[in-house]
């Protein structure tokens, strides 16, 4: 029951989201991922399904050259270790030097001091976007000191909105909070995305995968990180909705969702994308 | 063609297995996994499908804090290396300090002296449950010195029963042997589980995944490791049976099995669980 | 519109390919894989679907013993690091000592000097087969100095044929170039394989998986590496074709392809294998 104004807004978001997806498919941006071991398969397949080109490259010895040929960088601290953190920092610094966008997924931040500190050091290197669940964003923002329940959120996105805005202002990053409604903010504007189905949470690393997708979208629209993040979240959520129509559980949802992402067409995007300025 | 007595026994096992699954779904235990790279995706998705919350965390720097928030720990030596073994030991010691259950999957033990020695060192740290195939359990028990064929069993579970009982007595662990009939023993009692389909062996890391599931089940029923291990094996096997009805090969079995695990209901569990005291 | 001569040739190739697959299923060769993290799940599942037995083992501490029980070795530099390269070299040397075949997948070679140098060092250890996409083979052969686009090819296989032949002559390895038509050469003879569908490129690590399959096929037919490589490429491509008939996108293709590989029968192999001497 959206008002006329919202519908108009939604239509223009849909047009832009579709255009952004076409651009990803056409340009096939190379996304370098330094990510956790659990997420590698679904992240690579998500990028491929969207038309991007994934490359999991973490050796410090080749970052200088490799980050130079990549179009964007995705850093995810899920299965972090001191060696991998060093690779992440090296790549982030290199991406900054070359003016390439990079995104950060602060998986499980708050679960240990080591994890939180490394995460804050990475944020100090200025990612274009930070995407996490409500608990992760609140932990990064210092809005909660309760240890999280592993990598799953114990907070809802509305709880995290103020924390996300504060964090965005303080860090000059776009902050995206995933949840039933995803929120994306630059500290002033807030976009809400209500695509997706809750069963996606029963598939490991869907959050990680969408962060990589954000990296792909930002790289083809460098001036618009706020909108790009919202588009990636909305299109991935929409793929989940379409996949859900055929799914009989989380594993078939994973499959049909990736198929749907690959097959997304203009009609589906125009009629079903749900983005609104909040 | 089970006798009346067995059927009665089976019904009460089914009731308990169902109750245990409900408890996992309700409590959503956080299971920390230090596991091989091959298994991470299916292990995380198996835990999520069952209602648990997986977290793959191996950095020594955060084990002290992370194991403290976990409800159980799953250690799997598949792609072991000295660094990861150090993490495994650190986590096992920490779990013991905190009185949290941990389970061990001795993948490929016997294939090298290094692997066997590290495995025995881990067993000396007293896991609640050791789960392996017949060849692995026999190698751990010293009942065979023939090198295994990689990670696949060359022995049958009945061959391994005496070895499993001896191992359980000597180590004070529950020992579970996977196979056509799974055997679970504390050295005195033996439970047999005959759920599952042989095609599951053509999916990588199903054994690893069920070990993680055992960790989840033990954490919600800490006093009953023998039964919890049997329940996890039976329910995972049942999910495989249900998945098999739709499958056209190992890859679709993997998908439908995880869907079935997520959707398991009381009727299926009561009518199809096959557990018997042997 | 193949000529009579080609058809006859094709029939005898099909007979041999089928025989080779039967041999893999019967002997279940143990294939040790030191491979990138992204590929581990699909590689292990591909080997299992074909009837082989995968083992991902990389610790230097156990290579001496483990490579001794393996039937073949697959080395893939995708997510390389100095430590893993050391394992790869140690295993390659050990395989050579024991006269066991090993294959090399030079993922992303050319993307950094570090990667290229390590790759050339591995080639100096004389793999039985090198399999890559056109860009990778051209980079290895020194036929291009343009940096690749990550791990995806920017060249076509016909472009790479001369480079492949030169490389095969210089290194005394079989060189296989994957593409719309796969080319396999020993420097003199060239076999072309035209099975497969292009959507397979939208699934991560299909190239890695087929390299592991080549290792399995070579190990059961040690005297015929050229033909074995062609059979593995053709059968994997055929599985992709059969899977494609049911697929609705890349993720379902991945599933149905592995199911089809597991279920491949004589009729399909005889009627649909497309191998020709070029």
From TrEMBL, chains A, B, C:
* Reactions mediated catalytically: 5-(2-hydroxyethyl)-4-methylthiazole + ATP = 4-methyl-5-(2-phosphooxyethyl)-thiazole + ADP + H(+)
First-level EC class: transferase
Q: From which domain of life does this come?
A: Eukaryota
The Gene Ontology terms for molecular function here are:
ATP binding; hydroxyethylthiazole kinase activity; magnesium ion binding
Q: Look up the record and name the pathway of this protein.
A: Cofactor biosynthesis; thiamine diphosphate biosynthesis; 4-methyl-5-(2-phosphoethyl)-thiazole from 5-(2-hydroxyethyl)-4-methylthiazole: step 1/1
Pfam name, any one: HK
Please provide the Gene Ontology terms (biological process) for this protein. Answer: thiamine salvage
EC number(s) per entry:
2.7.1.50
The Swiss-Prot or TrEMBL record lists the needed cofactor(s) as: Mg(2+)
Q: Which InterPro entries match?
A: Hyethyz_kinase, Ribokinase-like
What Gene3D superfamilies does the record tag this protein with? 3.40.1190.20
Record's keyword terms, sorted: ATP-binding, Kinase, Magnesium, Metal-binding, Nucleotide-binding, Thiamine biosynthesis, Transferase
Stored CDD domains: THZ_kinase
What is stated as this protein's family in its record? Belongs to the Thz kinase family.
Q: What does this protein do?
A: Thiazole kinase involved in thiamine salvage pathway.
Supply the HAMAP family for this chain.
Answer: Thz_kinase
Its protein name is: Hydroxyethylthiazole kinase
The source organism is: Ceratopteris richardii (Triangle waterfern)
């Amino acid at each position: 029951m959206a008002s006329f104004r919202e519908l108009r807004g939604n239509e223009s978001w849909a047009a832009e989201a579709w255009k952004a997806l076409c651009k990803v498919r056409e340009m096939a941006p190379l996304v370098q991922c330094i990510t956790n071991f659990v997420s590698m398969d679904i992240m690579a397949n998500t990028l491929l399904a969207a038309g991007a080109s994934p490359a999991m490259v973490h050796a410090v010895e080749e970052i200088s050259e490799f980050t130079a040929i990549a179009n964007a960088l995705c850093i995810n601290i899920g299965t972090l270790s001191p060696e991998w953190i060093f690779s992440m920092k090296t790549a982030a610094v290199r991406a900054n030097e070359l003016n390439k966008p990079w995104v950060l997924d602060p998986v499980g931040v708050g679960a240990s001091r080591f994890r939180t500190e490394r995460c804050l050091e990475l944020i100090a290197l200025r990612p274009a976007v930070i995407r996490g669940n409500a608990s992760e964003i609140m932990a990064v923002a210092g809005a909660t000191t309760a240890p999280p329940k592993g990598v799953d959120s114990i907070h809802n996105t509305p709880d995290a909105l103020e924390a996300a805005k504060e964090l965005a202002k303080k860090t000059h990053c776009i902050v995206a909070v995933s949840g039933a409604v995803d929120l994306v903010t630059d500290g002033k504007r807030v976009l809400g995305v209500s695509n997706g189905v809750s069963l996606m949470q029963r598939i490991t690393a869907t959050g990680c995968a969408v962060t990589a997708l954000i990296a792909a979208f930002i790289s083809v629209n460098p001036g618009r990180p706020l909108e790009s993040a919202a588009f990636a979240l909305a299109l991935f959520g929409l793929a989940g909705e379409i996949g859900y129509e055929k799914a009989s559980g989380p594993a078939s949802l994973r499959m049909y969702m990736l198929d749907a992402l690959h097959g997304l067409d203009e009609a589906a995007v125009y009629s079903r994308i749900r983005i609104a300025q909040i």
